[in-house]
Amino acid sequence: MEIGDWVVRRRSQSTNHPINQSTNLPTTQSPNHPMSAPDPTEPLCRALIQMEARYQLFPRLPNEEARIVVVGVSGGADSVCLLHLLLHFAPSWHLALHVAHLDHNVRPASAQDAAFVRELAAGWGLPFHTRRLSPAEIEAADNNLEAGLRRLRYGFFADVAASLAGSAPVAPTVAVAHNADDQAETILMHVLRGSGLPGLVGMQPITFLPVRVGENDKIRIVRPLLDVQHTHILHYLNTHALAWREDATNQDLTFTRNRLRHQILPRLAEIYPNLTGALSRLGALLAAENERAERLNEAAFCSLLADFAPQPTAAPVRAVLDRVALRGLDVATQRGVLRCAVFYLGLPADEMDYERTESLRVMLIGDETGGPTPLAAEIVWSAEPERFSLHRKSALAFPLQQPFLDEQWRAIYAVESLATQPPHPNPPQIGEGIVTTPPPIWGRLGGGAQLPVNGEIAVGEWHLACREMERADLPANWQEKSDPWQVYCDAHDVGELLLTTARRGQQFAPLGMGGRHKHLGDFFTDSKIAVALRAGWPLLLDGSSGEILWVCGLRLAHRARIRAETERIFHLKWSKE
Asked: For residues 257-266, b (16+ Cβ closer than 10 Å) or e, as one string?
């Protein structure tokens, strides 16, 4: 994904589960359907027509092809009403309806709800898809049952839509029956929680599941009844003699939403009779403000983005931003930029709350450096004085400015991983990280690439060259350290040169320590090399003994130093194309 293609609105989380049961009935409705057809002049019909005209919930497809719509039906009043309305408009709007029902399995009557919806779909000639949650899934969601069941429900809808995508010209649409009362409850809950602008917006007529069908086609969620009050829905059902199921858990006051619905909102409505309409209007007004703020935040984020690590088929793994420029922004934009950064990396919105955002912002406008430090989920932060990086735990924090033997290189040359290499069988005694005698060579040396004398090795854009010379050919400034990526070393008694990476338990005798050995990990720590860089840091070994001759870019080994009696010399140099 390139930065120019960035559209980050992963504001929902989907959990994938298999579809256990599907009844494949005809996808078209009989023109002589034995049910009461709604009158287009009815208030709910007019409301639905207005929503479709305003938001294009179901855009027409070329050649009048049918758009597959997965209708989430719980069996309650709202979803039965939505299905009845869409069934009426399906022929003129070219919709092929499918009914999806998730049996939550949290109360004994849930199986009866599923049977009711199955019979409803069969009676109306619609395909039916259902799945029953397992006890393990319910237990996993028990910390926040309401939110957990919602994630599972949308995950199921996404699975149904994805399963139907192969026969559709575009990704199927998911239709759910949230109404104006649900919107009022949602907005009030966010007010009481102290949510920011995105929360106060409430639900939107169109959102997207973070599930792609094909390369770019995301699954849309539409809410056609979002402007309709529940009392109007009940009137519609009674007018058309439609049956529905009552969910006893909707009366359970242990759920926050139910307490708002049955206790708080009715009391507030005594003071503000049009409370539902007022809260819905607040959400609509703030939605426009939020859209403008997001555009400004995205522009600021893109202007601060110094480097990113794109992935062809997945979210990027790193976003490096200008820390100095961030400090110059107002507080609201600083928060917005950080939210954009984590969304850009694919983090769900509910993982990055106000406390985490504000803690990160305060740290970044200060002087703290370091990292990687956990932020949320798989995302960590790393900070330098003038830049900072939000990145996945497995990714490098900043773009490399030196040679790096990545996982692909190590796989080609079969270099053993630091994580899988067994510990040293007889580790030498260490005093303050320094080994006074050379450790024995143990195990196999691991893989690597041979560096030919008077030849070179290519590593990506970098090349490591070795040139043999006589002492008389040494340049006058050979001892200068202006370029840490080139050295002159004693070529006497050196076998083949092997380019490789670090192994667990490896020792190194750095120049300047009189031949004493030190753990390579301690040497990296003393040299302030980030942990993420160590696995791919290039080392040059004497292939015959396995001893490190050069920790490239950092230090030559004591045994490779040029002495008075040195006659043959290797000039080792890294250069970039």
From this structure: ebebbeeebe
DSSP for residue 424: P
Q: What is the pLDDT, as a whole number, of residue 212? A: 62
Among residues 339, 91, 89, the alpha carbon closest in space to that of 222 is found at 89
Query: What CA–CA distances, in Å, run from 4 to 78, 222, 378?
Result: 40, 27, 24
Chain centre distance of CA 161: 21
Q: What are the distances in angstroms from CA 70 to CA 18, 163, 174?
A: 16, 11, 5
Query: What single DSSP character describes residue 536?
Result: T
In this predicted structure, the answer to whether residue 45 has a pLDDT above a threshold of 70 is: yes
With a CB cutoff of 8 Å and minimum separation 6, the contacts of 242 are 80, 81, 84, 236
Q: Looking at residues 560-568, what average pLDDT do you find? A: 91
Tens digits of per-residue pLDDT, 170-205?
A: 888 999 999 999 999 999 999 988 888 888 999 999
Q: What is the pTM of this model?
A: 0.67
Task: List pLDDT tens digits, range 196-241.
Answer: 888 899 999 999 886 666 555 678 999 999 999 999 999 999 999 9
Domains of the chain: 3-27+40-247 (3.40.50.620), 287-392 (1.20.59.20), 407-576 (3.50.40)
- pLDDT at residue 376, rounded to an integer: 86
Q: Are 450 and 466 in contact (CB under 8 A)?
A: no
Contact 15, 151 (CB under 8 A): yes
Rg (CA), the chain: 32
Q: Return the SS3 of 165.
A: helix
Asked if the peptide bond before residue 372 counts as cis, ω within 30 degrees of 0, the response is yes
Residue 335: count other Cβ atoms within 10 Å of its Cβ. 18
Name the average pLDDT for the chain: 83
Contacts for 54-57: CB closer than 8 Å, 24+ residues apart: 54/205, 55/205, 55/206, 55/222, 57/173, 57/175, 57/205, 57/206, 57/222, 57/224
With bands split at pLDDT 50, 70 and 90, how would you rate the model's confidence at 81?
very high
Place of tokens 């199927």: 172
Name the one residue in this structure whose structure tokens are 């859209």. 291
Residue 497: beta bridge partners? 451, 542
Pair of tokens at residue 176:
């759910």
